[in-house]
Amino acid sequence: MEQKELQQLNTLHLKCSAEQFCRVQDETSLLAAIDYAREHELRLNILGGGSNIVLPEYLPGLTVHVDIRGIRLQSPCVIAKAGENWHNLVTSTLRHGFHGIENLSLIPGSVGAAPVQNIGAYGQELSQVFLELRAADTLNCKIRTFSKAECAFGYRTSLFRETPGRYIITSVTLRLKTHFEPNLEYPGIRDAVGHGNPTAWQVSAAICRLRQQKLPDPAMSPNAGSFFKNPIISNRQYQELQRLYPVISGNTQSNGMIKLSAAQLIELADLKGSSVGDAMVSNKHSLVLINRGQADNQDILKLADRVQSRVCDLFGIQLAVEPVILASG
Q1: What is the DSSP letter of 229?
Q2: What is the pLDDT of residues 35-58, one digit of tens each?
Q3: Which of these is catalytic: 27, 102, 125, 322?
Q4: Catalytic site residue 150?
């Protein structure tokens, strides 16, 4: 175990010093790390691709970087280890003629992080193709398998999001298809792919273009992706909001609730481009908070709080934060 600077291991590029650090490449090493933390009474911090996390300047305890790799295709399933890059998994399945996650192309992060927030984009969620996963239980230091029902998936949440630190995902199994059925219902996708019958590769490429057009590149403008979840409200509340702000739009969900665009609310609150220190609401997409160079944890959190407070004051809606925020204490 060693001390480690984590600035290069998080996409917000925040300076962070881990008290103790180790990288694990298999389940046996992971269990050994958990056991070490328990034996030495150390707090256990889990780090994957670093794309959906806000780190403090100092991270006490043992930080475990899960770097377990491997992809196995076993028709109609794909078994991917937690340390694999998510987009690399998408392209790997396409190369081998498996379909079902092309609408999730170019989502940053690792495979292990995908079930935690039930990643979703452009009309698809991970839960729609999910079969099962393996995870280490930090309470008894054992590996167990979770079914889809046990994962308790919801909108950008799951059992693993609601019980932080309890389980560490090591692999994910998805049930895909060998015949392609394009999912083009989300606004903008049909226009992006053009007319006719697109291939899976064409849909994936169109999704990539859409994301690149709308979202800042973490390599150029360090960020943690969408910082706020799109709020879901009752139809009654939506009607009242529209009476006060006719420009506000929403999408009706299967349960009759209405999903709003958090980005639209932030822009209507005149927060696009606002900043605290070197943390700024992106001018390219208002859901994204970027680090202009020297932002620290407090800059990001103060800016997020400003956004939440302003949106709540104007619209009576509390925006929920999407990334995991690790505390220093």
Answers
A1: P
A2: 999 999 999 999 999 998 999 999
A3: 322
A4: no
